[in-house]
């Protein structure tokens, strides 16, 4: 019996990466062109809009981006006065980031556009297919975390 052949177009990790890059690239061009934001910056704004006042470590965990990417994104947002940094009350070595009034306004302006992109992307799927896709992506993310030793099995 022969070994299974690796065919890139049928290889699920490759297909997920290509799909993710296509979606992120489409949205990134819009955010960059219209609002001067990178995808990491937009992710930080979204997370801070949901849970204002987070440390860089909390942002790393919530966005699943590395520390350097989060730090660079935060610095860019600080320079544009979209986020403010304050001292962490319990840990003097840490800072807390929160959206400024300008950051909240930008989020309120972009969020409907982001939802419209999502609606356009999933318009060819039935609601139960969307729900299934979200569940399957969550399971794949959990499995990847377990294989990487990031989450308990």
What can you see in these coordinates?
There is one protein chain. This protein is 65% helix and 8% strand. By secondary structure, the protein is mainly α. It has one domain (8-121): Winged helix-like DNA-binding domain superfamily/Winged helix DNA-binding domain (Arc Repressor Mutant, subunit A, Orthogonal Bundle), CATH 1.10.10. The chain has a 3-stranded antiparallel beta sheet. A hairpin with a 7-residue loop joins strand 2 and strand 3 (95-99). The longest helix is centred in the first third of the chain and has 24 residues, at 12-35.
Features:
65% helix, globular, mainly alpha, Arc Repressor Mutant, subunit A, three-stranded antiparallel beta sheet, 3 strands, 153 residues
Q: Can you identify the CATH superfamily?
A: Winged helix-like DNA-binding domain superfamily/Winged helix DNA-binding domain
Count of helix runs: 6
Structural class: mainly alpha
Tell me how many strands there are.
3
Reported for the largest beta sheet, the result is: 3 strands, antiparallel
What is the radius of gyration computed over CA atoms, rounded to a whole number of angstroms?
18 Å
Strand order of the largest sheet: 1-3-2
Give the fraction of residues assigned to helices.
55-70%
Can you tell me the CATH architecture?
Orthogonal Bundle
Whole-number mean pLDDT: 90
CATH top level label: Mainly Alpha
Q: Runs with pLDDT <50, length 5+?
A: none
Order of helices and strands: HHEHHEEHH
